[in-house]
UniProtKB/TrEMBL annotation:
The lineage of its organism: Eukaryota, Viridiplantae, Streptophyta, Embryophyta, Tracheophyta. Binds either 1 Fe or Ni cation per monomer. Iron-binding promotes an acireductone dioxygenase reaction producing 2-keto-4-methylthiobutyrate, while nickel-binding promotes an acireductone dioxygenase reaction producing 3-(methylsulfanyl)propanoate. Its cofactor is Fe(2+); Ni(2+). Pathway: Amino-acid biosynthesis; L-methionine biosynthesis via salvage pathway; L-methionine from S-methyl-5-thio-alpha-D-ribose 1-phosphate: step 5/6. Ni(2+) binds at H99, H101, E105, H144. The keyword GTP-binding does not apply. Belongs to the acireductone dioxygenase (ARD) family. Catalyzes 2 different reactions between oxygen and the acireductone 1,2-dihydroxy-3-keto-5-methylthiopentene (DHK-MTPene) depending upon the metal bound in the active site. Fe-containing acireductone dioxygenase (Fe-ARD) produces formate and 2-keto-4-methylthiobutyrate (KMTB), the alpha-ketoacid precursor of methionine in the methionine recycle pathway. Ni-containing acireductone dioxygenase (Ni-ARD) produces methylthiopropionate, carbon monoxide and formate, and does not lie on the methionine recycle pathway. This is Acireductone dioxygenase. One of its GO terms (biological process) is L-methionine salvage from methylthioadenosine. It holds the Pfam family ARD. It comes from the Eukaryota. It is found in: Cell membrane; Cytoplasm; Nucleus.
Length: 200
């Protein structure tokens, strides 16, 4: 990824370490002073990102290429806002429970914005703000959660390899093969090969 590519992605994806406040989950929750996280740091945790043309997703050659290369055969859309999502309050609460999936979670923000929170290798929360044009892939086995920001709206394309499975496994689910693979592939590398106690 070249410097110009990174700069373009950083216009639609920003990440930072979160504070420990219990205030409204839709607030930015910056630390003081602010502590930003780079796209490279996210990639070290297995979080991949692209900037795509959200006004042209139906004919976007880059999206088509990513889908072909990564085998994303399934696609649908999910609109998250009080007016469009049935059982909105309950769903938002569920999305914000820390969980993992046994497959990648792929989201392409075609309108609005929201926060994906992921854990770093020291268990600290990183808040990833995705805006229109941002596509993000969370690896299988990563603990994460989602919430809207204070604009209360996101429309996201959901992609999947094969038939979609949206099952969330709320923490702790460290015994799952997807979690063990994630620790081996990303967290142990970070800690110089030492085992990380992911259940702490």
């Amino acid at each position: 990824m070249g410097a110009s590519d990174k700069a373009a992605i950083e216009e639609v994806i920003q990440a930072w370490y979160m504070d420990d406040s219990d205030e409204d989950q839709r607030l930015p929750h910056h630390r003081e002073p602010k502590e930003f996280v780079s796209l490279d740091q996210l990639a070290e945790l297995g979080v991949l990102s692209w900037r795509l043309d959200a006004d042209n997703y139906e004919n976007d050659e880059e999206l088509k290429k990513i889908r072909e290369e990564r085998g994303y055969s399934y696609m649908d859309f999910c609109e998250v806002c009080p007016e469009k999502l049935p059982n909105y309050e309950e769903k938002i609460k569920n999305f914000y429970e820390e969980h993992l999936h046994t497959d990648e979670e792929i989201r392409y923000c075609v309108a609005g914005s929201g926060y994906f929170d992921v854990r770093d290798h020291n268990e600290r929360w990183i808040r990833v703000w995705v805006k229109k044009g941002a596509m993000i892939v969370l690896p299988a086995g990563i603990y994460h959660r989602f919430t809207l920001d204070s604009d209360n709206y996101i429309k996201a394309m959901r992609l999947f390899v094969g038939d979609p499975v949206w099952t969330p496994y709320n923490r702790p689910h460290d015994h799952l093969p997807a979690r063990k693979e994630y620790i081996e592939n990303f967290l142990q590398k970070e800690s110089g090969g030492k085992a990380v106690d992911a259940a702490a």
